[in-house]
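Q: I'm writing up a methods section and want to include an example of the input and output format. Could you take the sequence below and give the corresponding predicted structure tokens, formatted cleanly so I can copy it straight into the document?
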Amino acid sequence: MATKFNARRLIYVVRRLKESPIQFLIRKIWILFGKKIAFLPKSPLLSLFQYIVTYRLVKHSKKLNDLDLTIGAFSAESELKIVNLKNEVENGTYQCLGYGSVDIIGENTFHTDCIHGYTWPNKHFSKIDFVCSDIKADVKIPWEKSRLQWLLVLTSYHSSHGSLREYKTEVLKHIFRWKKQNEFLMGVNWCSSMEVAVRAINIVLIYRLLLPHLTNTEKSKILESIAQHKIYLYLFPEISDIPGNHYLATEVGAFITGTLINKSEKQLAKRMLHLNKVFAQQFNSDGMHIEFAPMYHRLCLDFVLVSYLFAAEQKVPLQELEKIEGTIKKAVEALKVVSSENGKIAIFGDNDSGQILWFGQDARDASLYVKGKNKEKVLTSCCLLKEFYFYSFPDALTNIESLITMLNKEKTERYSAYPFHTINAGSFKLITRVGKLGLGERGAHDHDDNLSYWVFDEDDDVIIEQGCAPYTLSVEEREACISSSAHNVITPRKGERFNLVDGSIFKTVRGAKVSTIVSQSDSAIHGRMTIENYSHERIFSSCEQTLVINERVKGEKQHLDSYIYIYSRAVKVEPCGKFSFTSLKGKEYFLDFGSVEDKNIEILDSYYFPNYGETESIIVLKSLFNFGTPRLELKISKA
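A: Here is the clean output for your methods example:
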């Protein structure tokens, strides 16, 4: 990844070199050699590579005509949604990550953050500073536009309405316009193999729908673009000594682009064996993704699901398919731990609202995998995505549906998926984070949120956190959001529990103190952590319809701040240490602080990020915690 080089970054690079295995360093040097020397645009070696891969795709591409890839009629609810999405695309705009509508048809639009008015230069991707930390701009806006998810929506609509033959030219115009603005390896949209992979998956799905209506020339042009994406994923993957979600995306993109080429059963078996090794590395034995960020867990589960849907069409060995089903099973069980009853995800750590395919679903909606008991309250934003999958991969999706239905009918309920742990009190569900940092303690997508918690009332947010600010828009805001005071924790008075350290691109919480479980049952969680001058124990328990949180602090005498982020815009002070509030969903709750005097609690305006580029006003209660108070008890109940 290209960023501005400085002394602090040099220190970081040296540290990473010391801790990285030699095999990883050799591969990293080889990739760098390819970027800078061997595979520059129009180099003989790259030209030869392009010719071979394109030739194989065009001359040996699979015959998909025996598959019925036409999208059928959507349900009434999904039809209304796809019509609205289609109309917006035809008007030249697209909803982007909570920022609102962005332009997708203007000149140079795919290189431009049109919200903040910045355009990245059109030069070789290795020479581009896509972070632009000294400029207010967000590279995820041109990246999101260039995933071409909006074009899959348009193609699916016309396939469903039997008008794709007539509108084929419009779809092709968009593909070739993107290709013209983004010559191979030139520009900001070739900076990340994850972005290349997601775009490649969408182009492959668009190609499958268009195929019955394409001329040989049109077919060859699309396959040439797919070949470029396949080459990039092979030559310039994002790797690390502990690979994360970007590596997973790269491997899945490479697999899916490869499904267009006829392969022997032996070749397929070898490829699936490798893919299952990748999945085994990415998900722990309890099913939680290794980066310990629930929103990324859902995204990585999506990558596994899409891989399964494509693999089921191939002559893949049954045991390899069953291994993917096993990965999905464990990952869904872990997802249930960090979600509400019907699949609304709690935002711990980073959240970029990422999707592989986007049919209007909310990034926090995991109802594709998590099914609640009350059908009247089931989340519905995934309905259109699910129907697209059904029409595109009917047999495979039926198998997955049966698996997920079985999981959600199981009577045994899990209360942990490390490092997340839960308790229930009536309709309340509390989720807390107690444990090590993710990605082998690198903490790439972690926040300083150990012992923090999130509270749902059924599927409604009650106690939340500040969430995740856009990664590159404001360095200061990004750092504030990952620091301890943006979470429901106790911090040193007017300070933070940990000073952030330099990471590969941003500052991170690597090295922050973490908590451990002292004891746990289905109705109580006791966690403990030790910071420089004090130790903090937090005991979560349930008492009928009430959640109870006990704090115990020991150490040198000093004042501490305690934060509670409330999903409300107004809090009312009641007698005897009580506060009442109405959530943004209209429900009323009490917070009972017991022994704490009212004068020690401040009611402050704050905000949080429900989506990557979206903010919402909320309230934070900030209380002064004295060592003279040996114990603080907080009760959360319905009014």
